[in-house]
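QA checklist item 7 of 12: single-chain prediction sanity check.
[x] sequence parsed
[x] length recorded as 184
[x] structure emitted
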Amino acid sequence: MAITLPELQSPPTEPEPMPLPDSGALEDRTPDWLETPRVLFRFALLAGVTFSFFSYRPLWHTDLWGHLAYGRLILQTGQLPQTEPFMPLASGMPLLDTAWLSQLVGYGVHEAAGVPGLQFLYAAGITLCLTLLLWRFYGRTKSVGWSIAGFALFLIINWQQLLIVRPQWAGVACFCALLVLLTA
């Protein structure tokens, strides 16, 4: 019987070093029109928190349901009511319905998505207002602090109105858009 000796293994050699990547591949090739300031993340986060907060607000017993009834009537008849259709004591009185478009949109959203759709529309309108104001504040001051202070001031001044779901928020959103355009 022959004895075999195990083969001696040679000591491990160090692996070959990996070649360094071409530093030209790390060049920023983002087009100028797509570059955004770093502050955009903070503002997007603030807008997201605002939207989340207002999308969970309950729909209180306000005139919201009356506005939806006007929207239903406009959709059913295909025209704006000339006289007051719902209040018996005001029957026959002329009616100037200035919120007809938001009533129609609100009724359409309620029919399509129910109460969550109305909450979404409400939160989206308030978030649009605040985002437009935040964008304009930052565009004029170039200061994150002053922009957030303006945002907070708007919230504080309008806090009681912000808690009520009403179609008039469409008018506030249009006002904020107009303000942004006029101060650009």
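[x] summary fact logged: The helical segments are 39-55, 64-77, 100-141, 144-157, 159-162, 169-182.
[ ] second reviewer sign-off
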